[in-house]
Amino acid sequence: MSFIQPRYAAAAPRAAEEAAPIVIVGGGLVGLTAALDLAQHGLRSVVLDDDDTVSVGSRAICFAKRTLEIYGRLGLGARFLDKGITWNTGRVFHRDREAYSFNLLPEEGHEYPAFVNLQQYYAEAWLVEACAATGMVDLRWRNAVTGIDGTRLSVGTPAGDYTLHADWVLACDGARSFIRNTLNLPFEGQVFRDRFLIADVRMQAPFPTERWFWFDPPFHPGQSVLLHKQPDDIWRIDFQLGWDADPEAEKDPARVRARVAAMLGDTPFELEWVSIYTFRCRRMQSFRAGRVFFLGDAAHQVSPFGARGGNGGVQDADNLCWKLAAVLRGQAPESLLDSYDAERIPAADENILNSTRSTDFITPKNDAARAYRDAVLELSAQHAFARPLVNSGRLSRPFIGYGLPAPDAPVLRDGAPDWLLRHLGRDFCVLSRGDAPATPLRAVTLGSDVEDHSGLAAARYDLAPGDAVLVRPDQHIAARFRATDAAAIRAAHEACLR
Ligand SMILES: Cc1cc2nc3c(=O)[nH]c(=O)nc-3n(C[C@H](O)[C@H](O)[C@H](O)COP(=O)(O)OP(=O)(O)OC[C@H]3O[C@@H](n4cnc5c(N)ncnc54)[C@H](O)[C@@H]3O)c2cc1C
Q: Residues 22, 135: one domain?
């Protein structure tokens, strides 16, 4: 079964002037995630998208564990697991032999794997459905933002223009962000001088469901190749082409077929999608301009090596939405929103650093870098010390600068197998072992609410009897307490809302 690209009806203006508390510009992966998250916090939003469909063609495919946990909290986790291709292992080949392999989730006892491969359009289509089901998201297709003044938006539709007065704007309008450009906000970083060809092919192939990366393989000498399995018997092959490649000539289907055939030998295949990409690593200086917040590719961009773009953007939404909800409910001062910048800028920098290092290894910039890379690859086949230096992409990991994301663990609920993260919810909660301290916060107690039958929950949180942790609404651990008292927990909770 192939994906059938949906076409959504354009929304006509309802009035020449309208007002809405929260307007999300861009109904892509990140904007839709933010809308669903806000809805689950009880906040309505208007989402404006200039297009009439979800992501077209081959873009994000690798959804990381942390993103899957966020989608689990938002009620979509099972869909990702059912449809997506689960993988934990990556293999790196140099010329005709394996140089290195890695397992990104070597331990058991987590609901979600290290990664699920899934075409971005599936994720977005499910988000559209989930947003609609909340009844809280006013999703307006073919509503292009054509102007911004403060938080007053000019919107163009096929049936005419209107003005939307927002209290808050979430700019999720992608790498070429109209909002960022119109507000003349700097977006600085590095352009990489290399080109990559994406060939998505449909085939029945015996390769295991692992990430395979080749440096200088016999079928594509001097360059790199990446292979990933996706649902619907589709495989993503990325061929490095070099900066001098002619992008138009390289998209010629006959030429692409020849490249793929050289790799696959006799395996029959059909070409599903062909595109060429180049990339940059850059970010805005601040992700907030007054009452306008920037999320996802609008705020930061990375190379695809490491799958940090979409995954990073989903974590932006995860970070901002509960804070906006707390401020709008009057539970926190507006200054809490400054912590979005303080927390997500270092996260973006970590993604940019890792993505840049991978790209520098894959595309060495000078003779010395190339000699280093080739030596590392040669040594890695024989010597363990060289293997961690091989860099074909350091894959997306959650940022831990504002507390570790709460680890999952298998538990029993009323005797039936369950997962701990499902019980932490979307508000602050106190996870404790033994008696829960008396606070107004939701309590999840190992031993009474859920049974920690394997002991993994206590071990992963280092909870001795009487200990507790305070978990934020985005399921990051905010504070830990030994032999805790309720006053300490209340103080930590208050500190999180400042
Ligand atoms: C080849 C490739 C492979 C990738 N692989 C991965 C991967 O494996 N994992 C991963 O996590 N990431 C990956 N990414 C990155 C990922 O695709 C992006 O990070 C992600 O799409 C960003 O989502 P977004 O919502 O911020 O922006 P977008 O997806 O670009 O969405 C922006 C939305 O805003 C709308 N819009 C734009 N301007 C306006 C306007 N003026 N008015 C109204 N609407 C507007 C657009 O129509 C669009 O719907 C990959 C990217 C590429 C190119």
A: yes
pLDDT score, position 4: 95
Q: What is the pLDDT of residue 140?
A: 98
| φ, ψ at 188 (rounded to 5°) | -115, 155
- Does one domain contain both 28 and 167? yes
Tell me the C-alpha distance between 94 and 436, whole Å.
Answer: 54
Q: Do 306 and 270 fall within a single domain?
A: no
pLDDT tens sequence across 439-497: 999 999 999 999 999 999 999 999 999 999 999 999 999 999 998 789 999 999 999 99
Spatial separation of the C-alpha atoms in residues 106 and 38, rounded to whole Å? 34
Same domain, 184 and 211: no
Task: Give dist(CA 36, CA 131) in Å, integer.
Answer: 5
pLDDT at 435: 81
Q: CATH code at 478?
A: 3.40.30.120
- Which residues does ligand 1 sit against, CB inside 6 Å? 25-31, 48-51, 55, 59-62, 120, 144-145, 172-174, 178, 198, 277, 296-298, 304, 307, 309-311, 313
272 and 293 fall within a common domain: no
Exposure string of 84-117, with b = 16+ CB inside 10 Å and e = fewer, is bbebbbbbbbbeeeebbebebbeeebbbbbbbbb
CA 40 to ligand 1 centroid distance, Å: 23
> Residues 184, 151: one domain?
yes
> Atom 27 of ligand 1 has which residue's CA nearest to it?
174
> What pLDDT does residue 205 have?
87
Domain boundary (358, 383, 418) is at 358
How high is the pLDDT of residue 247? 94
Half-sphere exposure of residue 41, counting CA atoms within 13 Å on the CB side?
27
Ligand 1 center to 174 CA (angstroms)? 5
pLDDT of the residue at 483: 80
Residues 422 and 442 in one domain: yes
Judge whether 37 lies within some domain: yes
Question: Are the C-beta atoms of 175 and 298 separated by less than 8 Å?
Answer: yes
Q: Whose CA is nearest to atom 31 of ligand 1?
A: 28
Q: Is 119 left (phi over 0), alpha (psi -120 to 50) or beta?
A: beta
Is 401 within the bounds of a domain? no
Query: Domain count of the chain?
Result: 3
The CATH number that applies at residue 262 is 3.30.70
The pLDDT of residue 381 is: 84
Q: Look at ligand 1, atom 6, and give the residue with the nearest C-alpha.
A: 60
Range of 233's domain? 196-277
pLDDT score at 10: 98
Residues 120 and 41 in one domain: yes
> pLDDT value at position 476?
98
Residues in the chain predicted with pLDDT less than 50, given as ranges, are none
pLDDT tens digits for range 55-88: 999 999 999 999 999 999 999 999 999 999 999 9
